[in-house]
């Protein structure tokens, strides 16, 4: 076992960090996170961490670059303060969608973020539902990619009526199949043609959704274009009711307006990304917490127990 357990947080998702601490029965270690008048970030750890097992909770959601830089500086400060081990707990891993070259002269941004994290001083990374699982291979240190499925599945088991799990595109079939298997439900796929980034056109449904509760499952909701198009085409194909669930509610651009005007009865998300005023702006949103899941992972890592038990 490492030294004492310490939990720190930046400014991206302090409520989630507090909830994690409540599960663990500890307090957040104080840290000064301010911005100088010229926009530079000031970080100062407020307690002795020498030899301790430190976990920094920081989702790299919007403003992505600011939250990433804040995390890098916190990791560097902890490294220079002689922390025994530093783990970056990133409920949402920013830039995860840029995991490969999509054009001849494009960066692989997810790899660059991994390099920055390593250089800044992290010994381990804990994240939830990486958009691309191969990002784990971008690190030369342990990466625990947790799944929010158990949290979401517990809620979906309360849904009344015959359900069918729907993947909004071909790339999400594996995820949807896992949900369908655990719920003993049917599986359907929405065939989608993407014309340009953040714009998608749903074409038709592969599978039987008639007179069933169709639940669209995805890892994140960004502009909600894909999701809402899927909801419309499912109703046209005879679904009795449509719901949606996703781990990361990024909800950028017109997402809130689209969800409010969508046919979805409910949109289930987790608190990997803080919603703030967006939650009040869209009554269809229902937030489940992954604090318990992250707390168990942190406890098991700290006590050198198996983390894989959380993947069952």
Description:
- The protein is an alpha/beta fold.
- The protein has helices at residues 14-24, 64-80, 109-120, 149-156, 173-183, 225-236, 255-260, 278-281, 291-302; strands spanning 5-9, 31-35, 41-45, 53-57, 85-90, 124-128, 143-146, 163-167, 186-196, 199-206, 213-221, 241-249, 267-270, 285-288.
- The chain folds into two domains: 5-146, Rossmann fold, CATH 3.40.50; 149-288, 3-Layer(aba) Sandwich (Rossmann fold), CATH 3.40.50.2020.
- It has nine helices and 14 strands.
- The protein has a seven-stranded mixed beta sheet, with helices on both faces. Strands 1-4-5-6-7 form a five-stranded parallel beta sheet, sandwiched between helices. Strands 2-3 form a two-stranded antiparallel ribbon.
- Homohexamer.
Number of helices: 9
Structural class: alpha/beta
Proportion in β-strands: 25-35%
Global shape: globular
Provide the number of structural domains.
Answer: 2
CATH topology of the largest domain: Rossmann fold
Oligomer category: single chain
Q: What's the overall average pLDDT, rounded? A: 93
Distance between the termini: 24 Å
CATH architecture of the largest domain: 3-Layer(aba) Sandwich
Radius of gyration: 20 Å
CATH top level assignment of the largest domain: Alpha Beta
| Largest beta sheet: strand ordering | 10-9-8-11-12-13-14
Helix content: 25-40%
Count the E strands: 14
Uncertain stretches: none
Main sheet attributes: strand count, strand direction, barrel closure: 7 strands, mixed
Give the SSE order as H and E letters. EHEEEHEHEEHEHEEEHEHEHEH
């Amino acid at each position: 076992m490492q030294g004492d357990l310490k939990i720190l947080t930046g400014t991206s998702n302090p409520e989630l960090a507090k909830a994690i601490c409540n599960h663990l029965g500890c307090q957040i270690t104080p840290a000064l996170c301010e911005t100088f008048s010229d926009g530079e970030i000031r970080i100062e750890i407020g307690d002795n961490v020498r030899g301790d097992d430190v976990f920094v909770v920081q989702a790299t959601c919007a403003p992505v670059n600011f939250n990433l830089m804040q995390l890098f500086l916190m990791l560097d400060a902890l490294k220079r303060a002689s922390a025994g081990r530093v783990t970056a707990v990133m409920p949402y891993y920013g830039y995860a969608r840029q995991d490969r070259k999509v054009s001849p002269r494009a960066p692989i941004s997810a790899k660059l973020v991994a390099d920055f994290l390593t250089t800044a001083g992290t010994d381990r990374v804990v994240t939830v539902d990486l958009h691309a699982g191969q990002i784990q291979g971008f690190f030369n240190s342990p990466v625990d990619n947790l799944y929010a499925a158990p949290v979401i599945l517990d809620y979906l088991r309360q849904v009344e009526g015959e359900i069918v799990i729907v993947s909004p595109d071909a790339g999400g079939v594996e995820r949807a199949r896992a949900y369908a298997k655990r719920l003993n439900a049917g599986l359907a796929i929405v065939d989608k043609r993407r014309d340009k980034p953040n714009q998608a056109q749903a074409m038709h449904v592969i599978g039987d959704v008639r007179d069933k509760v169709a639940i669209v499952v995805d890892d994140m909701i960004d502009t909600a274009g894909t999701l809402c198009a899927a909801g419309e085409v499912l109703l046209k194909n005879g679904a009795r009711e449509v719901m949606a669930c996703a781990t990361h509610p990024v909800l950028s651009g017109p997402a809130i307006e689209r969800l409010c005007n969508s046919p979805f009865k409910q949109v289930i998300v987790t608190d990997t990304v803080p919603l703030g005023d967006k939650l009040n702006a869209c009554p269809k949103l229902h937030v489940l917490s992954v604090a318990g899941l992250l707390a168990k992972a942190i406890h098991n890592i700290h006590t050198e127990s198996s983390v894989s038990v959380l993947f069952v």
